[in-house]
Design brief:
alpha+beta, 3 domains, 8-stranded antiparallel barrel, 25% helix
Length: 307
Amino acid sequence: MFYLYSCCACERHHKLINQRGVNVNNNKETERLAVDLIVKICVKQTTRQMSVFPVCQRMGHKAMRAGLLVMLLLVVTWVNADEDVYPEVKVADPYIEMHTGPGKGYPVFHVVDRGDFVEVIKRKTDWFKVRTAKGKIGWVSRVQMEKTLTPSGEVAEFADAGLGDFSQRRWEMGLVGGTFNGAPVMTVYGAYALGANLSAEISASQVTGDFSSSDLVNVNLLSQPFSKWRYSPFFTLGLGQITTSPNVTLIQVEDSQDLIAHMGIGLKMYLTRRFIFRAEYKNYVGFTSVDDNKEFEEWKAGFAFFF
């Protein structure tokens, strides 16, 4: 019904077009102008028809504007959507081997012959994820990638891991040592980056005292507000459990297990390649079963590597 009405309205206004000095039979340019005028008149007439229903008109206008905006965004996105462009290198050796994963332990499933190009998608330590012209994706060692050529014929160069890789790391593992309430402590930890400035850590520690030994397991969040700095401060907050066992005793004493919470500050310093130095201070609160909370202080420093 709406479509038929619009067409009829356009026919009735055809004479009005000629009265305004536009002849649709002259040439293509005048035909284009005529069509534009017809569309404007149809829209104007349609708006008058909708004015009988003021509420519907307002809703129709809002919906129309929203629809046009969505369509415009889709068109712009489609026009500007480009596929990711990756650097290409040319195989110079008789062949290079593609592994199923980033390591020599992964099997070779494909070889790329001399003269073929591959796209370098990403890097993981000294392994590169590449894609062939036929779409095969695999991992190639840095040793073989350094024997490839750029499109201009020069030897491809691959820099060592640097500060930029430190700020974009995903995994981190390290070993740190120090004192826990005056007793020696050693800690091994692993961390996963949840974002550019936030990571989750899990650690296991062993405290060796004169009269007792303790094992700690902690889970904490680490905030690193300046992750791109070579000297990067951090703040940590977490929970865990401490199990204490007496070394020498004249009477039978059971091991104790208590919940602990901690907060701390520290500093990470990028050294070279994939190694960092880490120093930190933590303050622990132990929630004992006898309602006698205890506080502990811990100072530690050590080294870690990231990948």
